[in-house]
Amino acid sequence: MRHFGHIAPEERQRLFFREPGDFTADSPARVLAAALGATLYSPANRPQLADDIIKQAGRGVVSMVLCLEDSIDDSEVVDAEENLVRQFTELAARQDTGEVPLLFIRVRFPEQIPDLVERLGPAVRLLSGFVMPKFTEERGMPFLEALTGAEVASGRRLFAMPVLESPELLYRESRVDTLEGISRAVDKYRDRVLALRLGVTDFCSSYALRRAPDMTAYDVQVVASVIADVVNMLGRADGTGFTVTGPVWEYFRVQERMFKPQLRRSPFLEGQAEELREALIEHAMDGLLREITLDQANGLLGKTCIHPSHVLPVHALSVVSHEEYSDAQDILKPERGGGGVLRSAYTNKMNEVKPHRAWAERTLQRAEVFGVAHEDIGFVDLLAAGLPA
């Protein structure tokens, strides 16, 4: 599979200076962690789940979470498990699936992991791993131990994606201890932890908050402080950190806007771009685009999504610009190993080799899976090209 693989090859050639690279469920963990992109959540009790997975893959989705936790009622868990096994079996038997996204199951209890893996049988080959809710050291270790056992029993490499959403992580008096515990747990199982996911909705719930569509997670200070501390302790670029993904965006449409639209006009001035801008504002996408940008500025990569319309904006803003690529390549040239300062090829900034090296390495990793846009291609072009005809 590849990002933007759902659009025609000639269109990709027009858009990309360096096209997104291919990857599979068996690719190295570092590749898959960077490639997750917009991870689309779907309730596991959907009766046409196999069809939904194929449909979303055809629209550019490369990772999905099939949820047995908060998205379904407590009374529906047994039926949802049965449906999940049935849909996986059907999907594995079909010949017309093409590329199937990376598939993860969000469970409620550690015991569900070995049970589901056993019940999936041969269809487990389609499974990439499990999402583990309300993760702390105490609650998380049984999940990680269960994952390891299921992996051995099935012979299938399985990844963990812990969700950081517990009140202990949010509350100031317990945050550092909780983060240190999480760090110990995920470090012990480092080879199996693909990414850490932020559960901002649960954070807001602890204070009876819900951010409006005109606001991002970073405007809610109690939430922003947690994100900062998670990245500080668990997202470092010194080899000890993990990929941390951005929080979910809840909105599809806006009924009433309290603030002026945040989406600036300048990228939208040519051709039909203004129509696209108006459509994005009408569907509350300007706030989403701003939050994605702030995610990236704060060290997050990828995003939890609960609506298909959010996938393309996440992927379009994940593509590396030609300017970023040029800077990263200059910084990482072998002859720059001793450090120093150089003027950007775009002549608009100074690149300081040693401080910017980690950024450059991460940028080229993103370029590997999301590609590099041509010099005259912006995110509006990428959005427009990826929209259904």
UniProtKB/TrEMBL annotation:
Keyword flag Metal-binding: yes
Q: May I ask which residue range the UniProt record assigns to the signal sequence?
A: none
Please cite one Gene Ontology biological process associated with this protein.
oxaloacetate metabolic process
Keyword set, alphabetical order: Magnesium, Metal-binding
Name of this protein: ATP/GTP-binding protein
Q: Which PANTHER family match?
A: CITRATE LYASE SUBUNIT BETA, LYASE BETA SUBUNIT, PUTATIVE (AFU_ORTHOLOGUE AFUA_4G13030)-RELATED
Q: Known InterPro entries for this protein?
A: C-C_Bond_Lyase-like, Citrate_lyase_beta/mcl1/mcl2, Pyrv/PenolPyrv_kinase-like_dom, Pyrv_kinase-like_dom_sf
Q: Which organism was this protein described from?
A: Streptomyces albiflavescens
Keyword Metal-binding set for record:
yes
- Sequence positions that bind Mg(2+): 202
Q: Which SUPFAM superfamilies match?
A: Phosphoenolpyruvate/pyruvate domain
What's a Gene Ontology MF term here? catalytic activity
What this protein needs as a cofactor is: Mg(2+)
